[in-house]
Amino acid sequence: MNLTPDSKVLIQGITQPIAAYYAARMKTYGTNLVGGVSAGNGGQELYGIPVFDLVEEALSECGFIDTTIIFVEPYSVLDAALEAIDAGISQIVVVTRGVPPLDMVRLLRTAEVTGTLIIGPNSSGIIVPGKVLLGTQESDFYTPGVVGLISRTSALTYEVALALNQAQIGQSIGVNLGSDPIVGSSFRQWLDLLAIDKTTKVIVLVDQTGGSSEEATAEYIAKTINKPVVVYIAGYSTPEDKQLGDPSSIIAAQLSGPVTITTTSQHKVELYKQAKVPVAERPSQIPKLVKKLLKKS
């Protein structure tokens, strides 16, 4: 992923009230918003951003577009994303929450074939501090620097970014993968991307309780990633039978009783420790671990 102030960005569903609000914030931040899409509203302008009826019309007018941000209703996300993929847009941020799981399965199959990067759904997006804002990230919590921040939960991402800033450690990028049960990209995928990013010197990974899809991440970091990584698992002190991270975990717990050991944060922490990946018990510990790793590197 190569995001610069010149990267062309499209917003699908731009006339949605929340999309319009964040479009203004993104443009003010410096994001190169070249157009928006809203069927039936083509020919209008919103904050100086031209609105088109179709993605194809936007490309005809604006040329190649790097990224699209989707704000449409949940049951329209699949159609919007497939329209973007058909138009050759290779990076998609889905802000909308509650996308039907079967729609996400179909979308991810198409994305795999076409090599499209999907972030979300239910994602606050991506920020390259001082350069590009894609989505609903709160830019006030970030400053330019060398720490790549990857998280599944937006609010906790801000807490970690603030702790780093207070320790005078800036961020190279902040990525919120999304907190719906099925999301487009994984920790491993973003670890690979940040491993080759020249600006990023240390990677901070913020996981949460519930689910076991990321358990292989610890071994993957130890064997594959050549940059230092710090991990924080939210909910470390939560009792094991209360550790529920998403709706699918809650349903599973209601049907079958307490969450099994493989879904607890304590178990995840042990896996990282066994792989010799530093783990912070609290967000406030992250800056100290980062500084230590920066000195070593």
UniProtKB/TrEMBL annotation:
- Is Nucleotide-binding one of the keywords UniProt gives this record? yes
Named from the GO MF annotations, one term is:
succinate-CoA ligase (ADP-forming) activity
Coiled-coil annotated spans: none
What Gene3D superfamilies has UniProt attached to this entry? NAD(P)-binding Rossmann-like Domain (3.40.50.720), Succinyl-CoA synthetase domains (3.40.50.261)
SUPFAM superfamilies this protein is in?
Answer: NAD(P)-binding Rossmann-fold domains, Succinyl-CoA synthetase domains
Q: What biological-process terms (Gene Ontology) are attached?
A: tricarboxylic acid cycle
Q: Name one GO cellular component term.
A: succinate-CoA ligase complex (ADP-forming)
The record ties this protein, via Pfam families, to: CoA_binding, Ligase_CoA
Domain CoA-binding: start-end pairs: 2-99
Key words of the record: Ligase, Nucleotide-binding
The molecule here is called CoA-binding protein
Question: Organism source for this protein?
Answer: Limnofasciculus baicalensis BBK-W-15
